[in-house]
Amino acid sequence: MVDIHLEGVGHSYDGGRSWALRPMTRTWRSARAYALLGPSGCGKTTLLNIMSGLLRPTVGRIYFGDREVTTMPTAARNIAQVFQFPVLYEGMSVYDNLAFPLRNRRYPKAEVDRRVRTVARLLGLDDQLHRRSRRLDAGRQQIVSLGRGLVRSDVAAVLLDEPLTVVDPALKWTLRSKLKEIHRDTGHTLVYVTHDQTEALTFADEVVVLKDGAVVQSGEPTELFLSPAHEFVGHFIGSPGMNMIPAEVTGGVVRVGDTTVGRAVGVDGDLPAGPARIGVRPEFVRIPAAPAAPGLPARVTGVDRMGAYHLVRADVDGHPLVAKVDTGSWYAPGSLEYFHFAPDRAFLFRDAVRCGVLAAAGEAERP
Ligand SMILES: Nc1ncnc2c1ncn2[C@@H]1O[C@H](COP(=O)(O)OP(=O)(O)OP(=O)(O)O)[C@@H](O)[C@H]1O
């Protein structure tokens, strides 16, 4: 297994008029499980196809370890691929399909048998091994395709493009954890394309979030949740997404309308005066019963009872604010409540990029 390094890699499908993938430099570390997450059209498949060799990038170079592979075809890159839809020899048994990549590489017979049975057991295919693949439903066929992608231990990387799309939703949960188990067992470098945040967050060591052909943030799932570096990450990850409230920074003090909500601590020191947006996840918005400090006044517009929690919806000068609260709480639509943000969990954004943190206001700065 080797690191995969992209040096200034970008792609344009229209002769350079626009970038489907903006030039990027990035290393995908050996034995790590990555999820490439983003909405439809953001460039996920383009990036994956460049790594696999199905697509030659318009600019840049690709290295597998020290070896430059930019112009090498897929077959020369020693990778395994799993696509959205099953790619199988339908006339072969499940066993032979799983064994195919190993026999092709001349693995010893006993090793072929051991690996096929291990992967089959992990994917719940043990009792299907002697069935013809064409007799399986589409979901099971896709699981066999997944098995074929994971069966070899000596690949440079396994690249998966939305592999669970045709699989039954109930089975997806099981497969995601199986995939994690297989990853732990084999230590493959995995790059897993998905537009589904749950899929990405439950499976990956590191999630790479792509928007309009560029990476806006990459990190461990908890980091993306707790510390979004871009407004898009705040919206795209989390349910519901992060609240965004327009504010004004003056002399280091942050105000929403006439209310002082805290101090601005800039990423690079003091934050210059001017407009900013406060981003805070509903999980970090509190509505104290008897607030010690005044808080941000907002009118409750509705309460969604979600079973395990309630979502309190409110309005701040025409902007929505949502708080995720315990089921025991009770708020009446139309009432005025005072909202607080958990310390260090509310961030300031300018041009969609995080520029600071909202810190608690000192006593002297409160109105
Ligand atoms: N063969 C092609 N020719 C021209 N434009 C293309 C081609 N393939 C993709 N594109 C464009 O490049 C951009 C990125 O597409 P890509 O398929 O990589 O995105 P994606 O994130 O994988 O989307 P999806 O989840 O819908 O597959 C899109 O604007 C798409 O329309």
TrEMBL record:
Please verify whether the record's keywords include Nucleotide-binding. yes
Which key words tag this protein in UniProt? ATP-binding, Cell membrane, Membrane, Nucleotide-binding, Transport
Has keyword Cell membrane? yes
Domain of life according to the entry: Bacteria
Q: Which Pfam family, any one, appears in the UniProt record?
A: ABC_tran
> Which residue ranges does the record assign to the ABC transporter domain?
4-237
Q: Name one GO molecular function term.
A: ATP hydrolysis activity
Q: Name one GO cellular component term.
A: ATP-binding cassette (ABC) transporter complex, substrate-binding subunit-containing
Listed InterPro entries: AAA+_ATPase, ABC_transporter-like_ATP-bd, ABC_transpr_FbpC, ABC_transpr_MalK/UgpC-like, Mo/tungstate-bd_C_term_dom, NA-bd_OB-fold, P-loop_NTPase, Transp-assoc_OB_typ2
Report the protein name in the record. Answer: Carbohydrate ABC transporter ATP-binding protein (CUT1 family)
What's the source species for this entry?
Answer: Krasilnikovia cinnamomea
Lineage, opening ranks: Bacteria, Bacillati, Actinomycetota, Actinomycetes, Micromonosporales
